[in-house]
Amino acid sequence: MNASEFRKKGKEMVDYVADYMEGIEKRQVYPDVEPGYLRPLIPATAPQEPETFEAIMNDVEKIIMPGVTHWHSPHFFAYFPTASSYPAMLADMLCGAIGCIGFSWAASPACTELETVMMDWLGKMLELPETFLAESAGEGGGVIQGSASEATLVALLAARTRVTRQLQITSPELSQAAIMEKLVAYSSDQAHSSVERAGLIGGVKLKAIPSDGNFAMRACALKEALERDKASGLIPFFVVATLGTTSCCSFDNLLEVGPICNQENVWLHIDAAYAGSAFICPEFRHLLNGVEFADSFNFNPHKWLLVNFDCSAMWVKKRSSLTGAFKLDPLYLKHSHQDSGLITDYRHWQLPLGRRFRSLKMWFVFRMYGVKGLQAYIRKHVQLSHEFESLVRRDPCFEICAEVTLGLVCFRLKGSNKLNEALLEKINNARKIHLVPCHLKDKFVLRFAICSRTVESVHIQQAWKHIKELATQLLQTEKE
Amino acid sequence: MNASEFRKKGKEMVDYVADYMEGIEKRQVYPDVEPGYLRPLIPATAPQEPETFEAIMNDVEKIIMPGVTHWHSPHFFAYFPTASSYPAMLADMLCGAIGCIGFSWAASPACTELETVMMDWLGKMLELPETFLAESAGEGGGVIQGSASEATLVALLAARTRVTRQLQITSPELSQAAIMEKLVAYSSDQAHSSVERAGLIGGVKLKAIPSDGNFAMRACALKEALERDKASGLIPFFVVATLGTTSCCSFDNLLEVGPICNQENVWLHIDAAYAGSAFICPEFRHLLNGVEFADSFNFNPHKWLLVNFDCSAMWVKKRSSLTGAFKLDPLYLKHSHQDSGLITDYRHWQLPLGRRFRSLKMWFVFRMYGVKGLQAYIRKHVQLSHEFESLVRRDPCFEICAEVTLGLVCFRLKGSNKLNEALLEKINNARKIHLVPCHLKDKFVLRFAICSRTVESVHIQQAWKHIKELATQLLQTEKE
């Protein structure tokens, strides 16, 4: 395929994409296929001879689309949103064409420098303390990671390196393995599974701190764990505080937890994967109060800030604490500017070596929406979740299970877990909307997350009416 | 921006991309900018109000392009290739539109199932042993990782889990930390820096095995290290063999190393990041002989198989060895099919949770090129590298520093390292072509890698003429 054919097919693809987005509401949000559906529809081996673009596009509708869960349908209320916007898609096309691998400054200076500046832009939108910004006189800065899981792991590894180096000075009799055996990390029992996984990968203990009645990590529970562990000879080194948990969008108490971490010389990482985007609105910024105590902070613009996956924004107060954990410099990656102090080689900030020119997506989205446009988008989602919340609250058969702060509503039928499991099954089997559940303490709960960029009040009303109907049927059957 | 505006701007972007690719040869391959060039050209904060697409595209040419290293220029011979093709770009547009996050089967069945089948297609193109294929009766299968670094780390972590579990049964007196302290991984001294980094992250020792005169890891050196370490109480558990090293594209001796790993119950991971693509050609397949001894195998279609970044293909003989190392199942990710044995939840195969619909790129590229088209592409690059090799060999001032097997030529002026450093500096300062160096044993060597999809004999001849001229000037100055 040459450039002139690409001009033609590329424009057909643009139209296909626009058609898909315009027609998505009419597609069934969750597919009917059974596991293994696809293999019989596809040849067992790659073709020897080239096939046409048209043949493939036919198969997209015939083979792929019937197996797609449509995350951008206004009937999709599962998990958390994943971002999708036209400006981000346009930027991604450009990113694919430039196709540079920005592991070092020299590998494509624009790729590195735009990222640094975009992370400053975003940091300012959140009113992050200056110490996290690269333009400040401090030692901080931001980097785009692939996912919040990677950010948590990178932070844990940096913290592990920091504490190990400190201990090797103060307690030279301890071997590295002896240190590793004593290290303990902490998160709330509501933290994302990726935190537990980071502990597994890093080879350190991870302890879950019992959350309070509002599903938040509080000072007393953390302190108790720290004291108990220190008394038994362990070394606390890392705490993950979550702002906007996956289960119910609860918030750990940063203003309590932060000072303790600082006093105890424990690295504080904040995971605000979903909720972070909301902090660009002044009325939600208070949820981030206490970030000044953190060593690292992360959230995913690829969830709720209209920047298509992947774009996970991470800031650290000390660049050297990341680079110190990873820095290895083979000759084929050295370049003449790298010791100037002016430049950033992002390969030292992340797990993989390769990286795409992802900051283009931020640049396009921030400029084409403007801060006001992005704020309006967040506010609309929050308003819709409150709309759903009030529908639930008005119905005596249902209950709200956690405070609704942003775009997630946790609710259930008053009654047994079994009843609610049956309701969820009915909802997802009907295929009109898509939800996933969670456990809150011992309760089986339905999560209603405002996800799609194009979701409107009418979809919320339809969804509620549908849920209500299925619930009425279910309660009817129960009675009979 | 709505769908109808996207139809218009998207088509403008398609034309911009086509223009960029058609005109890339005329752009200076390596930029003139100095560190910090970009920040003064961009506002200090994001705009409050929306800006137009046109304003941004103006800035792309004014601010971004002057700082881009053009990886797809036919004058780019640095690092290794990074893939770029129109079919992959078309697929990426579709991937962006569907925008699903395929962490589990249910999150988008098509995303998971196409990946499994595409990995089988690719495995068959390479004639991988059946045990690595998901369609076989065995326990193997493939997964797309983000990068070879991640694949190496995932393999190391799976191997660490496997050996730890085995030892906890056979030597229950050993604590996990005591085991970690004894674990040793190995790779050749020519292995990529990501291998050393995987050791750092995994908290295990990594030892470099001295390579032989052809920069290959051989049986005797590996055996010696294993015996010495076992004698001193250490536990060898992981070997990375490299096929196509970054420095000089040398090949570890799999047929020697493989059986030793199997005898010693050591996990063998093969990293063929660059070279792997060539194995789709029957005449290069012998370089992969011995893969049958491996537990895991990885290469990057995003380097040399025309699938744009990121797409790193990894296969394992036992799926359960990966998933066993990572599996955590919170309720919001559970779904009704997951225990059927028929389905794959790829989140258990990788470090991050989120993942894009990357197999679409493989599907488009494999079908629009056909296997024959892909083979022709590989062969053309290999032919061009031999063309450059013979130009170098014909010149008595120069020497070839390592066997030229695929698309990389390592060469230098006969003479001191200083002389060759001066030559490289002259070449890169002239900005007509772009190269990076490597060290082979103690020699400073220039790497000439065939990279661009559009590079032709004429570019090789121009590049050599240019290098020759600069070398002649340099030798002249030296004499004076």
Structural account:
Two copies of one chain form a homodimer. By secondary structure, the first copy, chain A, is α/β, with parallel strands linked by helices. The first copy, chain A, contains 15 helices and eleven strands. Chain A has helices at residues 3-23, 53-64, 86-98, 109-125, 148-170, 176-182, 193-202, 219-231, 254-263, 282-285, 301-304, 319-326, 359-394, 417-430, 457-479, and strands at residues 141-145, 183-188, 205-209, 235-242, 267-271, 296-299, 312-316, 398-400, 408-413, 436-440, 443-449. In chain A, the strands form two sheets. Chain A has a seven-stranded mixed sheet with strand order 1-7-6-5-4-2-3, sandwiched between helices. The first copy, chain A, has a four-stranded antiparallel sheet with strand order 8-9-11-10. In chain A, helix 14 (417-430) packs across helix 15. The N and C termini of chain A lie far apart (65 Å). The relative contact order of chain A is 0.14. Chains A and B meet through helix 1, helix 2, helix 3, helix 4 and helix 5 of A and helix 1, helix 2, helix 3, helix 4 and helix 5 of B. Chains A, B: The modification N6-(pyridoxal phosphate)lysine is found at residue 303. Chains A, B: InterPro entries: Aromatic_deC, PyrdxlP-dep_de-COase, PyrdxlP-dep_Trfase, PyrdxlP-dep_Trfase_major, PyrdxlP-dep_Trfase_small, Pyridoxal-P_BS. Chains A, B: This is Aromatic-L-amino-acid decarboxylase. Chains A, B: Its EC number is 4.1.1.28.
